[in-house]
Amino acid sequence: MHFFGIDLITLIEAVGYAGLFGIVFAETGLFLGFFLPGDSLLFVAGFLAGQGLFSLPVLVIGLVIAAVIGNVFGYEFGRRVGQKLFSREDSIIFKKAHAVRAQKFYDKHGPKMIVLARFMPIVRTFAPIVAGVAKMRFPIFLIYNIIGAVAWTMLLVILGYFLGSVIDVDRYLLPIVLTIVVVSFLPAIISYLKERHENKGK
Question: In terms of pTM, does the model score above 0.70?
Fold first, then answer.
């Protein structure tokens, strides 16, 4: 199955557990990982677990741990050097607008942003960094981090696991993955349109 030129099934089969865990860590902990297809990757990994390629418990536990550690890394990065992100110029791997968007989301939603951001591509990459910049208390951050990692991972992986046993893969997998991507971006789109509307009203 190809997605934006990437055959996700072939990619996941090739990288195995270690590659999957590494990709999730990068997307949730390194600001250069915002372009990685986290949501669709988890769904397809769950589907492949349903086909016997992966052990579901090992997959879920490993992905949760990778997501939690990734966010902790991002938090520490933001706490130590994150302030510099908001003053640096755009580059190929960094866009200031992404960090600013995550900052606004944090200002609006507070600690629960760490949970909500899991389901929003790009924002979830920068959310822990912004939390570190804002010096959120680490115990609070860790609690929301774990809740978000468990909810995000289990929802997408288990959805892929069970749907994989009842759908025609060739016909329905791509539409489902595209739907997941669109739904993932909806909160960010709605937030942007709402903010734009409020700014026009001023």
Answer: yes
